[in-house]
Amino acid sequence: MKISVHGIKHWAWGFAIAGSSGFPLAARGMLNPALSVVLGNCMLMLGYSFIWTGMRQFVGAPVRKWWVLVAPLLALPVLSLFFLDDGNVPGRIAFLSTLIAGLSALPAWELLRRNDERRLGQRWVAWILLAHVGFNVCRAAYYGFSTSVPDAYALAAFPTATGVEAFLYMIFLVLGLIIMMSNTLQMELNRLASRDPLTDTYNRRAFHEMFERELSNAERTGRQPALLLIDIDNFKQLNDKHGHAVGDLALKHFVTHAGLCLRSQDVLARFGGEEFVVVLPECSLHAAHVVAERIRTRIATHPMSTANGDISFTVSTGATTAIAKAPDLKEVFDRADAALYQAKMSGRNCTVTA
Ligand SMILES: Nc1nc2c(ncn2[C@@H]2O[C@H](COP(=O)(O)OP(=O)(O)OP(=O)(O)O)[C@@H](O)[C@H]2O)c(=O)[nH]1
């Protein structure tokens, strides 16, 4: 099973390219200055673009491959024009700072407009990006709007501040990305640990946890949950006659259709084999019977489509509620199991309450 965080490759490329842009920039004395500045800064824009597109991949937004080329291709002619204008250092810095601010605002926006469970890491990264936007806006404004050419002190002070800011930005951004990735992996591991891989419903472990929680809530509120124990009828026959793959399809078919009969707070889980459980929070025995019958009727009247034509099957259900003052999962479950046994004994395709 592969667990991955989307966007990592783009971030790796982004940091590698942005970091390598320092080489042509540092080689200004050896290379043609125009070449080193244009090449270095186009690489820097490419690096920022990769980080932005990586962020879009991370949040599940679509990305076109050519998007990473937009900023470098925009920077190329503009920077070249600045060199025709005698280098125009302040103008060039203002232009680059604006572009950097824009390219950093984009991933911050991607993160802030999506509120999901990975929020702590996402907020951290978004604020680091916004701080970088702020710094670059100030830098662009300073160089862009200064009426006179900045004096030697100002030109020397800003590169120093830029170096310190770039260093801190990199460290905090990488830290934030690591937190974001570890949150994502943690969520994915939690999901995998609580899911049945075939049907993608909750598994027995998750059911136990959730039902225990419902029972302790019920102790507090006095509003008891109901439990349905649902078993596909003659599943062995279905497997033997149509093959295991069709049996698997029947399990998924059941999950899809049962899910359509439940409220958002109800929990459907695969207990094992062809047996499923449904936890219905705050539900009377009568209401549980209604839900069980709704599921049974839907399954009986919706045959599944297979390569060999439509195949029908039915389900039997044992339904019960937690009624004791200190309800215990085993006791409730045994009651539902006994009701299910009665349903099977009564000829299947029916619901028995207990
Ligand atoms: N295709 C498939 N079959 C499974 C899976 N898990 C368990 N089974 C099969 O489910 C069948 C269960 O058979 P039984 O326990 O005899 O139950 P049944 O045939 O449904 O009979 P009743 O419950 O009395 O109606 C067995 O043949 C198992 O091999 C699975 O994940 N996929």
TrEMBL record:
<dbReference type="InterPro" id="IPR029787">
    <property type="entry name" value="Nucleotide_cyclase"/>
</dbReference>
<keyword id="KW-1133">Transmembrane helix</keyword>
<feature type="domain" description="GGDEF">
    <location>
        <begin position="223"/>
        <end position="354"/>
    </location>
</feature>
<dbReference type="InterPro" id="IPR000160">
    <property type="entry name" value="GGDEF_dom"/>
</dbReference>
<protein>
    <recommendedName>
        <fullName>diguanylate cyclase</fullName>
        <ecNumber>2.7.7.65</ecNumber>
    </recommendedName>
</protein>
<dbReference type="InterPro" id="IPR050469">
    <property type="entry name" value="Diguanylate_Cyclase"/>
</dbReference>
<feature type="transmembrane region" description="Helical">
    <location>
        <begin position="66"/>
        <end position="84"/>
    </location>
</feature>
<dbReference type="GO" id="GO:0052621">
    <property type="term" value="F:diguanylate cyclase activity"/>
</dbReference>
<feature type="transmembrane region" description="Helical">
    <location>
        <begin position="166"/>
        <end position="185"/>
    </location>
</feature>
<dbReference type="InterPro" id="IPR043128">
    <property type="entry name" value="Rev_trsase/Diguanyl_cyclase"/>
</dbReference>
<feature type="transmembrane region" description="Helical">
    <location>
        <begin position="90"/>
        <end position="112"/>
    </location>
</feature>
<feature type="transmembrane region" description="Helical">
    <location>
        <begin position="37"/>
        <end position="54"/>
    </location>
</feature>
<feature type="transmembrane region" description="Helical">
    <location>
        <begin position="124"/>
        <end position="146"/>
    </location>
</feature>
<dbReference type="Pfam" id="PF00990">
    <property type="entry name" value="GGDEF"/>
</dbReference>
<keyword id="KW-0812">Transmembrane</keyword>
<keyword id="KW-0472">Membrane</keyword>
